[in-house]
Amino acid sequence: MASKLVQLQSKACQASKFVAKHGTSYYKQLLEQNKQYIQEPATIEKCSELSKQLLYTRLASIPGRYQTLWKEVDYAKSLLKNRANLKVEDAGMAALFGLECFAWYCAGEIVGRGFTFTGYYP
């Protein structure tokens, strides 16, 4: 176990050195490739306009998401009605999805408690 920890530390150190050496050039290359998306000058008015565009674009996508939700619910209902035809793969996927939901719930609880495991008050 200790040898695995030492290996992990050395890999993390190597990754850190790689990022320190190549991170700036990657950042500049990324900005250069995506310069058409950069708004110059970055004024408060432009940022406000972009945030409103994002908000209303997301609001406009709600009806499509709502329809997709009900399609998924109908699919789940049909799976429950036809339990005899249920495959092990489908049951496994459902179990993993439930486990993922529980993990996100636990993560949210921990964050809500101020990153403590024992209680809501530090």
TrEMBL record:
Q: List cellular component terms (GO).
A: mitochondrial membrane; proton-transporting ATP synthase complex
**Keywords tagged on the record:** ATP synthesis, CF(0), Hydrogen ion transport, Ion transport, Membrane, Mitochondrion, Transport
Q: Does the keyword Ion transport apply?
A: yes
Task: List localization entries.
Answer: Mitochondrion membrane
- Identify the InterPro entries for this entry: ATP_synth_F0_gsu_mt
> Which GO biological-process labels does this protein carry?
ATP biosynthetic process; proton transmembrane transport
A Pfam family this chain is assigned to: ATP-synt_G
Supply the PANTHER family for this chain.
Answer: ATP SYNTHASE SUBUNIT (PTHR12386)
What does the similarity note say? Belongs to the ATPase g subunit family.
Name of the protein: Mitochondrial ATP synthase subunit G protein
